[in-house]
């Protein structure tokens, strides 16, 4: 009887065990003055705390100051530049370092969200997003935008959240600020068995915390393709079971060989809410990720109010301050945008849309009010022309007729010159003959 020995299986097990042993750090000094909650109790308390705050954030206002800095690795830069060259895209080469500053003011009412955003550059860093001053609101069905510099407005489908930290610049989301690596940590912890987790009470930055340490392995149908995550989580009991820190190191294997590693870090400072003292809200936040690019994000929060009844008018074009006569580009359907104008009788809000009265040509005597912002328009985001498509054709025809007329004039002058020359030569010959006869 022959025994089959699965070398590959045992090799992969050895790789996993080696990872666990190499990443198992010294256990922090444990505090024994209080009894620890069970793993199930801890998850339940974390979930209750998060959901209470999430519900209040659905009716809130506040401000945030955001700073993003990132650096793209050389392989990604070379690949993107090559793709642009292959597709004939004329653009400046992608720079390795990029960043943005952003000021945000938000308002929320249930499924209605509004963000007033001012984006600026950071020194000599390449801009991830160009300078802009935009107001946008959205619900589950569609989104409204108003570009205050270009004085143009848009209706579009609901926005898509980008998973990278730069996604906060594309679309700020106050609720996402309470997630680490776009994960709800209490949801992530539910997938682990209590026996695989180190749970203890420690002191972190002068604060008593519950510390979790866990390592897990996820794989697909191919045994050799798997991912090993080393997670560490710090939870503050005194701040209603908020996550004050999360660190993760990830190693990804292909056919049993390590081919990529990346890290996550989440650090948060909290303060009690003015309106609900038992609810702790973010004061400062720092996040760092290296999965796609090395990106760092800093956010400072201020003037946060919870449980506020925000009027529905806040989320419509009147609340945005869109001036009468501003163009509205409806981009919800594929193809060219449908152009409307913000005229009397038009209503654009998250509660309803009434655009029929704006489907007319712009009245010639309607003028925009003076801009209150520096006249620094953004690059035109909508390629559709607002004038007749026939205009370029008529210009080309006019140019052709002018060129033809000029050519005919030159031809006429040349012909007259030749004719006069012929007459002069004929006169000279005639006089010469007469002189010969007289001799």
Topology:
Blueprint: H1 7-23, H2 39-57, E1 60-71, H3 74-86, E2 97-109, E3 112-120, E4 126-127, E5 132-138, E6 142-147, E7 152-157, H4 167-170, H5 185-190, E8 197-204, E9 207-219, E10 226-236, E11 242-254, E12 257-272, E13 280-289, E14 294-306, H6 317-320, E15 327-330, E16 338-341, E17 347-348, E18 353-354, H7 391-438
Parallel strand pairs: 2-4, 7-15
Antiparallel strand pairs: 1-2, 1-14, 2-3, 3-5, 5-6, 6-7, 8-9, 9-10, 10-11, 11-12, 12-13, 13-14, 15-16, 17-18
Give the uncertain stretches in residue-range form.
Answer: 1-5, 7-21, 23-27, 370-420, 422-426, 428-439
H/I helix tally? 7
The portion of residues assigned to helices is 25-40%
Cα end-to-end separation: 141 Å
Specify the biggest β-sheet: 16 strands, mixed
The number of E-state strands comes to: 18
- Return the structural class: alpha+beta
Strand composition percent: 25-35%
Please tag this protein with its features:
single chain; 439 residues; alpha+beta; two-stranded antiparallel ribbon; 7 helices; disordered N terminus
